[in-house]
Design a protein that fits this description.
Elements lengths: L14 E3 L6 E6 L2 H13 L5 E7 L2 E9 L3 H15 L7 H40 L1
Antiparallel strand pairs: 1-2, 2-4, 3-4
Helix pairs in contact: 1-2
Amino acid sequence: MDNPVEHFDLGFVNFTQHPENADYVVFRFVDADRAASFKAELEKQKIWFEEGQEVKKQVTYILFGLHKTDYNKAQKINFAVEAKHKKFLIPGKFFRWFVVLFGVTMIALAVIGYVINADKKSINSNLELNNDK
């Protein structure tokens, strides 16, 4: 089985290939609550892992190393943990609905404007064609 995780790490995701052993994947968390949820789910599903900590640039990462054969299961757990702990992009319910309704209104106005101008444009092009004859 090829390793599903490339070693090249830009930091967009919270997992990477183990730096020394390509048979392992390392999941990293900054938030202790997310790390605790991830650990609890790994234990619940009886997935073997090693736990550690690493400090980089004054940030403490909680690390979980597990075999690449468990990568797909761990990735599902990872997504579930992220969903459980996610925060809304726009926190206020009123403001969130305002942004949605404002966006829908702008799109509706743009479509109406396009339809109206398309009709005028076709009438003007027909008049120009008739005048050229």
